[in-house]
Fold this sequence. Notes:
The structure is a single chain. This protein is α+β, with helices and mostly antiparallel strands. It has two domains: 3-88, Phosphorylase Kinase, domain 1 (2-Layer Sandwich); 170-295, no CATH class. It is built from eight helices and twelve strands. It has helices at residues 7-13, 53-62, 96-99, 110-129, 174-182, 188-198, 210-226, 237-245; strands spanning 3-4, 20-24, 27-33, 39-45, 73-79, 82-88, 133-136, 145-147, 153-155, 162-165, 170-172, 269-271. The strands form four sheets. It has a six-stranded mixed β-sheet with strand order 1-5-6-4-3-2, sandwiched between helices. Helix 4 packs parallel to helix 7. The two termini are 29 Å apart.
Amino acid sequence: MLIRYSYSEIKKITHGFNDKLGEGGYGSVYKGKLRSGRFAAVKILRKEKGNGQEFINEVATIGRIHHCNVVQLIGFTVKGSKRALIYEFMPNGSLERYIFSRQGTIPLSNQKIYEISLGVARGIEYLHQGCDMQILHFDIKPHNILLDENFTPKVSDFGLAKLYPTNNSIVSLTMASHLDKNHSSQMYFPSWIYDQVNEGKDILEDQVTEQEKNTIKKMTIVALWCIQLKPIDRPSMHRVVQMLEADIESLQMPPKPFLVPQQTSNDDRINMANPTSLRDPSNVCSVDSSYQFGR
């Protein structure tokens, strides 16, 4: 059961909003300490979001979720235009801090990067298939992947989440297609990566073991599947988890990612009731690794 706090309790928990952890498009986040002694992250939503839709989305969505790779919502506050969400505290912050080497930041090992990738995939798969409602996050990015004390990843920030009944077999993918198109210039790098892997070249110059090379190659192949511009070529999250857990020898290279989407208007709507009719059942498609349901 979620706990409903008063706004005065929130001020006490955060010691008057003294320790700010970060700020995003939906509000500021502060470190707090509950009466139980447990640390928490308190997200104060911006007042200009007057209709409270993002607040309703997060409470309704995360309140019913319990998964080791999805951040846990502890409670909430609502008083007039003042709204807040109380989450479990993630001591290692967001994945964004570790994507690139920075001064004072401990780099993640290749094995840990793989474990984080698999954990994120499992979290998204749960959102798509493990809940009473099918949940589309629509804002998966390193900033919204939080890491606990063991660097276990947890998907967070459901301000843009959309809920779909489990019997809703058709989902419009227009938004995902739009995002592909807006960032088409970024496809140059994936095309180069594709050529490197396809030609059997090492992606990293550093000295790594043969096992690490295979792990890196496996993650790269899965990533190339997930960024396919044609929705029918993208795997479900269930399939993504399977590929990440499989041996490298069992994986096939996807079509090469091109700059211009070679897709028809029918690709913007996917029949979720019979996805296997679209292509090989091992490659159930959808919007992208962040937008699909799968089986």
